[in-house]
Each structure stands twice: as C-alpha cells, then as structure tokens.
Amino acid sequence: MSLRASLTLLAFAAGIAGLPARAQDAPRPARGPAQEPTREAPRPRAPDVAVPSATALPAVAAGADAKSGAAPALGGVLAGSPGWRTYRARFVTEQGRIVDTANGAISHSEGQGYGMLLAVAADDRASFERIWGWTRANLMVRTDELLAWRWAPDKRPAVADMNDASDGDLLVAWALTEAAEAWGEGAYRTAARRIAVEVGRKAMLFKDPHGPLLLPAAAGFSAADRPDGPLVNLSYWIFPAFQRLDIVAPEYDWSGLIRSGTDLLRQARFGPSRLPTEWISMKAEPRPADGFPALFSYNAIRVPLYLAWAGLGREDDYAPFRTLWDTADGRLPIVETRDGRPVEWLTEKGYGALSALVACAATGKPVPEDFETVQDGENYYPTTLHLLSMVAVRTRYPSCLKR
C-alpha cells in the first residue's frame, strides 16, 4: 500500500467514529449559514434488484448467543424524553446535520445514523426527516448506495474522502428500517434495503475461516489492501442492527455476523486487562493490528453497549468491562492493552451511562436514580452514548429502572 493510502487509512481510522479530540487539538470554527451546503438534487438510483446468489448467503438459525430477530422495535421508546430535546437543541442543525462538537464541528455518517435512530425512538418524525434529508444530500455522494464517512464544515469540498464507514452505513440502514416499521413509510424501507444490500456486497466477508466478517469500509481493510488484513473493528458489530436488518435484507447472514462477533469478543482479550483493541488483524489468530496503538479506546467502549442492547452475551463476556469501569468513579479509562495501564480518562458524565448499562445487563443491578438525566453542557459523543444506553435499558432491561 502506498504512503498516501497509508496516511488516508490512518486518518480514516482516527476520525471515523467521531473520536473526541482534546480541546487544543480541535478548534471549533464559528458556525454560520455559509457552512451549511445547498441541498443537492437527488441522484438517479438503480432499481431495487435481487442480490446475486454469488454474494449472498441465506441466513441460518441462530445459536443460543445469537437471538436473531429478537430485538424490539425502537419507535417511541424515548417519546417525551427531555434528554432527546436537549440532544436535538445542541447537536441537530436546522438543516439536519449532526454536529460533533468535540471533533472540529464535523459531521459523519455514524453521527447521522445515531441522530436518525434517536429521532425514531423519540417519535420525532420531523427531526428524522431533516436528518435523513441532510444525510442523503451531503453524504450519499458516492457512485453506489453507501455513504461518504466524513463532512467537514471548514473544507471545500466538505467531503474530501469518498470512502465509507460500514458502521455509519449500518446505523443509517437500521434507522430507516425502524422508521419504516414505526411510521409505515415504504420509501424508508426501500432506502434501508439499498444501503444494507450494498454493505453486504462490499463490506461483508462470508467465507473467512473465522466466520462472517464485517470490514470497516469498502476499501482499505481487506487482505488485498494490508499485509495483516483483513482488519476489523469490533465496535462496528452493531448487534441490535443485525437483529433487525433481516427485515429489509433477509438474503444476508446477519445471524452469522452475530455469532462471529461474539466469538471474536471472546478471543480478542488482549493483555492483562483482557480488553479488545480498536483495530484487530484477522490474518491468523486475532491480534492487535499493525501500525495502530494497541488501545481500548473511544471506538471500543461501544462494544458492550451493542452487546447489552441486543440482549446477548454471558456474564463473563461483560466481566473485563465491569472490572475496568466499576472502580473508575464514573470515569472511563482509555487503556494500553499491552500492560493494562490507563493512558487517558473520559470524564464527561454521559460516558458513565455505559458502566450502568453493563452492570444492569450482566447482573440486573438497578441503574442510578439520575441515569436518565442528560447533561446540557456535554459534547456530542458522551451525550449520544448516554441516550443510546437509555434506549437499551428501556427496551431490554426495564426492571433496572425500577426503584
């Protein structure tokens, strides 16, 4: 791989999940109308055709750890929530752009997908339409049905990298699926199918020895792209999305992805902390990927969120996260997995909702009394994780809310 391609990949990996940046590293440019792009005319779409049999495998029955189809619908779960109103006021522009406030005010496909999911959960169709409209006009600029992963308000063009991010693609497809179910809108279902099918065609490996794998993007992470490839990121395994996407794309083995993800979680227990790194080589046995810090960091903290949200896993699957977080006084450490040493702390209160969710999922421990109190002054990423944790508890573990 060329130096330019390597640098592009590193930049993609560093920013693709909306990593919170230190204040001194992420100046926040003033926002104004000039930074919001004019909506583009809809581009022509190919007809919704069947997935070629050579690339799609039929779904198979899920095992005990993969409860395919068991995820409840999200529509209205957060209806009337003050937390959603806080989120909408702080991070959703009038045009429908989700602003990553700690990352140079950029927007990304992941954030748009999260915003769409939360709008469905809040039964806020007007906000959903705004967010989906901006996403369609500004990120669906590739020649296929996937989304460009990053949009920068201070750059022209605002989309400088046409690569996608499979977690962002999946989140948008899942949100559209939930919207179709909640509001009976066939156009949402059609759009969800087109994205989900394209993810299956371009980012899913069906015949890997480790089982079905999800590449982080359509380009840059396969065995052909990297000597240690294929590369995966376990936080891209959005387990509750896999439980719902067979509604729109039943040709694909979403249950197999659930099984391979839970298997990978049990193998990727690196170092004394027994935690997964952000980027994992699957060339042989899973190991930390070459050229990336061996950190349990901003991306990976979502792994137990998705596991708990889907109602998956055994108590020992949550044990490394509980061990790390139960003694952290509400803070979440970023860990160097080679020696188990914390190298940085995530201190915004929203992150602590993950710890409460994990304790609830693992042992049934009630969440704190202020679990659903969303802080007005926090950044996009911890606030998003807080609201997602609220949705997970409300849908999967309502008993943890009882006092």
Question: What is the secondary structure topology, with strand pairs?
Answer:
Elements lengths: L2 H13 L66 H10 L15 E2 H13 L3 H14 L11 E2 L14 H18 L2 H18 E2 L7 E2 L16 E2 L6 H4 L11 H14 L12 E2 L5 E2 L6 E2 L6 H7 L5 H11 L6 E5 L4 E6 L5 H12 L16 H17 L7
Antiparallel strand pairs: 1-2, 3-4, 5-6, 6-7, 8-9, 9-10
Helix pairs in contact: 2-12, 3-4, 3-5, 3-12, 5-6, 10-11, 11-12
Considering the chains and any ligands shown, give keywords for the structure:
403 residues; mainly alpha; Glycosyltransferase; three-stranded antiparallel sheet; disordered N terminus
Overview of the structural elements:
The protein has 403 residues and is mainly alpha-helical. It has a single domain (67-401), classed as Alpha/alpha barrel (Glycosyltransferase), CATH 1.50.10.10. The protein has helices at 3-15, 82-91, 109-121, 125-138, 166-183, 186-203, 239-242, 254-267, 303-309, 315-325, 352-363, 380-396, and strands spanning 107-108, 150-151, 204-205, 213-214, 231-232, 280-281, 287-288, 295-296, 332-336, 341-346. A three-stranded antiparallel β-sheet has the order 5-6-7, with no helix packed on it. Helix 5 runs antiparallel to helix 6. The chain is globular and about 50 Å long.
Give a nutshell description of this structure.
The chain has 403 residues and is mainly α. It has 12 helices and 10 strands.
